[in-house]
TrEMBL record:
It comes from the Bacteria. Belongs to the peptidase S1C family. Its main location: periplasm. Its EC number is 3.4.21.107. NCBIfam families: degP_htrA_DO. This is Probable periplasmic serine endoprotease DegP-like. Might be efficient in the degradation of transiently denatured and unfolded proteins which accumulate in the periplasm following stress conditions. Residues 243-311, 357-415 form the PDZ domain. Transmembrane segments: none annotated. It is an enzyme of class 3 (hydrolase). It catalyses: Acts on substrates that are at least partially unfolded. The cleavage site P1 residue is normally between a pair of hydrophobic residues, such as Val-|-Val. It holds the Pfam family Trypsin_2.
Length: 458
């Protein structure tokens, strides 16, 4: 009898423990039901491309063999990703890398409605793109303040991994403020790290908090297998909100620029600079004429706060500076020669990067090549070791330049057979280019030179 009573008591205690444990785990069903209608699957098509320029065949080649000298067309490429509706009148957010090479974009909702989408604008630096479909009354998602996110919080992702539509996966926030430099060594996104199962096809999909609001946009994974190993990274919602507003307003994203090279402060450096602990961003170099130079910052200064935001590590500084509107004056706290100082800096504008064509902007005319260009600044000349040139800020779709493969962010160094030294030279040269003639153009992309050919049809 005593054994039975003990067994029954143990069973009751164990059952109550299991119930308590179950109650402490999050319940996602209602969140998924409410949020899924605003999540979309994105399908893209990149058409096969063939060089349509006139071919220069070797002499005395019979017509029957000329096809051997023609370039082969690329195969049509299809890919997919995820996204979500950010306003009921048809604006959809996704990753730039999901749509950057697409000639056709379609989005499909969970209720099987499907729409063709156009690109409003893209921001490769944050890997975000804003799309638009012709629809009204669409279900939409709300953003949360990503700065309130804490390590250990439960989060949930919805997307189409490996094409499996509207799949949900959950986990916790593993870290915040992760610095992951791009191939161009740019670092403007303080990524959210999670252990949520994210796989190819999830890109561009939403990351939710337990209130059903978007705290991030799933963008990258670290993997050795091609699939999830519990290291995924999302773009914070606060970054996305700013990007959406700027892309809607002007089709591009303007970022702040300081003009310094920085490094981490280790324990020994902190001690030598009079800091109680390793913190801040140590200025290694200042570009002449930059906002940092004009404001009186010095090599050897350790920036401790910028615009009211604490700079705990060097990677925090690009995140903070990039988020500030160009032309704004902000307070800076720094350590110089063992003493804390306060000063101010007027933030400059970061040079336009590899922005995509503004396919949705029908009012842009451009020049005879279909380009909008700007003077090349000293910083980029030095970085790419260029004597001169002009930087492309926008490419008109279907223009001679677009057909030649020129992109925003490219630096044009030669038109025809003439060198482009500055904006005035470029304007003079492009106005005199002969029409209906195949001409070479030399440009630099990410510091690497390349030649293409173009024809101005008039």
């Amino acid at each position: 009898m005593g054994f039975k009573r003990y067994f029954l008591t143990a069973f009751v205690i164990l059952s109550l423990s299991n119930i308590a444990a179950a109650r402490s785990l999050p319940e996602f069903t209602e969140l998924i039901e409410d949020a899924s209608p605003a999540v979309v699957k994105i399908n893209t098509v990149e058409h096969a491309k063939r060089n349509s320029a006139r071919q220069n065949y070797p002499q005395d080649v019979p017509d029957i063999f000329r096809h051997l000298f023609e370039p082969r067309a690329q195969q049509e490429q299809r890919s997919m990703g995820s996204g979500f509706v950010v306003s009921s009148d048809g604006y959809i957010l996704t990753n730039n890398h999901v749509v950057e090479s697409a000639d056709e974009i379609s989005v499909r909702l969970s209720d099987h409605r499907e729409y063709s989408a156009e690109i409003v604008g893209t921001d490769p630096r944050s890997d975000l793109a804003l799309l638009k479909v012709e629809a009204k009354g669409l279900p939409m998602l709300e953003f949360a303040d990503s700065e309130k996110l804490k390590v250990g919080e439960w989060v949930l992702a919805i997307g189409s991994p490996f094409g499996l539509d509207f799949t949900a996966s959950a986990g916790i926030v593993s870290a915040i403020g992760r610095s992951i430099p791009t191939e161009r060594n740019e670092n403007y996104v303080p990524f959210i790290q999670t252990d949520v199962a994210i796989n190819p096809g999830n890109s561009g999909g939403p990351l939710f908090n337990m209130d059903g609001k978007v705290v991030g946009i799933n963008s990258q994974i670290y993997t050795r297998s091609g699939g999830s190993i519990g290291l995924s990274f999302a773009i914070p919602s606060n970054v996305a909100v700013d990007v959406i507003e700027q892309l809607k307003d002007k089709g591009r994203v303007d970022r702040g620029w300081l003009g310094v090279a920085i490094q981490e402060v280790d324990r020994d450096l902190a001690k030598s600079f009079g800091l109680s602990k390793p913190t801040g961003a140590l200025i290694q170099q200042i570009e002449p004429g930059s906002p940092a130079d004009k404001s009186g910052l010095l090599v050897g200064d350790v920036i401790l706060s910028f615009g009211g935001k604490t700079i705990a590590k060097s990677g925090d500084l690009p995140h903070v500076v990039g988020s500030i509107a160009p032309g704004k004056t902000v307070a800076v706290e720094l350590m110089r020669s063992g003493k804390k100082l306060k000063t101010s800096v007027e933030v400059g504008q970061l040079n336009p990067g590899p922005e995509a064509e503004l396919a949705g902007d029908k009012g842009v005319k451009g020049d005879r090549l279909g380009l909008l260009v700007e003077e090349l600044d000293v910083r980029q000349k030095q970085a790419w070791r260029l004597a001169g040139g002009v930087v492309v800020t926008q490419v008109v779709p279907d223009s001679p330049a677009a057909k030649a493969g020129i992109r925003a962010g490219d630096v044009i160094a030669q038109l025809g057979f003439d060198v482009v030294t500055d904006l005035a030279t470029y304007q003079a040269l492009q106005s005199k280019l002969p029409a209906n003639t195949l001409l070479p153009i030399r440009f630099f992309r990410e510091g690497r030179p390349a030649y293409r050919s173009f024809t101005i049809v008039e």
